[in-house]
Amino acid sequence: MRKESMQLSPDQYQLRRLIIISIFASLAVVLGVVEALIPFTVTIPGAKLGLGNIVVLACLVCLGGRDALLLIVIKTILTSFILGSFSTFLFSVFGALSSFLMMYVMVRLGSKLFSLMMISVMGGIVHNLGQLLAASIVLGTTKIFYYLPFLLVAGIATGLFVGAASKHLIGSLNRLQLFAVRNPQS
Amino acid sequence: MKRGDIAIAALIFIALSWFAYSALGKDNKHEEAAYASIYLNGEHYDEVVLTKEEYEIEISSERGYNRLKISNMGIEMVEADCPDQICLGFGHIHSTSENTVCLPNRILVEIHGADDAEGVDAIVS
User: How far from A148 is each of B10, B43, B96, CA to CA, in Å?
Assistant: First the structure.
């Protein structure tokens, strides 16, 4: 699997990684902006599709945890700049990081134990949970956990969608053979 | 479905059925909504009576501006200067323990019944 990357010198390999992360990051930012245009919030306040998570999950599986973390940091900061939503920046970061940590642990535990779909679903759920937790700390109340069941269902629904999309993306990326996959999905 | 998948799916199912069970139990002892507590930055800001007649209240803080409308024994956020406008999506809330949150402006509106001890001496109508 790693034959092609072995032929490259370390510098070339690093450059290739950096370029791929940049492309991923710009894709994630565009998806985040597109998502903000969808009035999905009418049905469940605070719920989002999490389109950017498609790219994050693909990066996590194909490139590994350190690159995915870099991608998340770039994505969250740039999206906040473009949308001008710095007042909720704290909540975005908290949600994104907790979601990343959950997915990272699950990917590391191996594809024998968890399917990509379930990793994505848990990522969605933990993202919502992290945001709710951050909100309850800032507002100084646990009353907003009233919305937990709704956000749980929303996390499952968006997680299934994101999981299906990233499965296709990872499949296509593998066919390109641009980079080796650490955990080939069965 | 893999081994870990089944375990997590079971956990999610248990959590969801527990939520459904407690939600059904709450409906039986439904109490009339009477007051709405407004919290700003985690501190108690105002206490309003929910009436059939419409009236509006405005909240201005260093974080932003919000306008709430009371009508039909409920309350609704009708205007906010926050960028995400999520708080308007909560709509008209009218039963106890429902709430509306505007995170950018740090505002929490919660509905409670008449027999709640909290804040009854601070009613502003």
Answer: 18, 22, 16
